[in-house]
Sequence to fold (157 residues):
Amino acid sequence: MFDRRRQTNRTGERLTWMLGGALLGAAAMYLADPKRGRDRRQALQEHGSELAREVTSLAAGGTDPAVEGAADELTPDLKDPSDAVLIERVRSDAVGPSTARNSAIVTTVEGGVVSVRGQVDEPAQRDDLLQRIRGVEGVEDVIDLTHLPDEPAPTRS
Fold:
């Protein structure tokens, strides 16, 4: 009976190590993805920097200017994100996942300016989409190139 408990413990330890290894491998694949890995790593770095800034601020009690200045030097300014990070924010916060309804919407970012192209079903959907995009942190301006089903697609002039 003593050996059976020891065997059960060993099996549990093996399963724990296997699960940990699988999770570590999945995380590595997620961050090393050739198509979107760079954007994911950039977003992870910015989120980590934001967390470090918050922890530093909490530890300092928000009163020591030297600590706040050091935190600002060590962390990037999230008010001016790179275009790659901003497009991910727009897609996740405003446009949503690529579903059948949203697949006709294409967004691009250049210098903080978001261009929105594609077909929307009705004017209210267009207004709602543009308002959500304008509400995303870091968006400086929005160029609306959307159109209704019975309208021709506009071109950027």
